[in-house]
Amino acid sequence: MVDVELLIDSKDILGEGVIWHPVEQKLYWCDNLKPNIQRYDPATGEHRVWPTPESVGCIVFREKGGICAAMKSGFAFIDDLDDMKIDYIVDPEPGMDGNRMNDGKCDRAGRFWCGSMDEGLAKPTASLYRLDPDLSCHKLDTDIICSNGIAWSPDNKTMYFSDTRKEALYAYDYDIDTGDVSNRRVIVDTTDKPFRIDGATVDADGHYWCAEVHDWCIGKYAPDGTPVDRVRLPVRQPTMCTFGGKDLDILYVVSATRFLEPGEAEKQPHAGGLFAIHGTGATGIVEPYFKG
What is the set of active-site residues? Predict the structure, then answer.
């Protein structure tokens, strides 16, 4: 039986980048707009918050230790959250003040992928980037409004990517050896649906799990985009999900208060909170470290 549990009533404006640390056995995520980086320890219930000097779209863990973050000013290393010393690597969009970095994660070769977004959520000024272990940055796609939903199939042959504002979930053919993408095609069109596809992950069987923002649910899809199942949440604006826990069988979900309409807060008192979904029957895959 599927059960949804509120873990932290964090009241995030825009919860993003939720990721499980397999060694620490702790969960990290960001509030893109407060802005901050947060950590939850399931063993103790401890919740820590580190304010950041600018927006953080997502974070990944480094093989060498510490964090690599995609921030308003681009990719950066943060070795110690308590010190919050930020070492900037590269700004892939210098001078584009209307954009910011948004959703991202590492592929299984240790490359950090992240897409940008138009902060006005209207103009196709954003792009999709790949930061390689040698810290070179490459633009792989353009004409994007709001990057989201990056994930890879277990066999590394397909990369998923959502442009939330273009109402499309794409699949690319993926070459794990070179990091190249090709043959982009739409596998889910949300134009006539009450939701858009936001942050996402895949399970060990290759199903794509995503936050269906604006419609209360986490969606489960087959690799070809066929809907398989939905899990309803007590909040209308889930924004990203990831598998975690000792057995990677807990689906953690972050959410937002940003889109609340007048009168909705009373009906969704835990909007912006961190949730855990138990009993899906699915098992996740450990998120890779950045090799840079």
Answer: 198
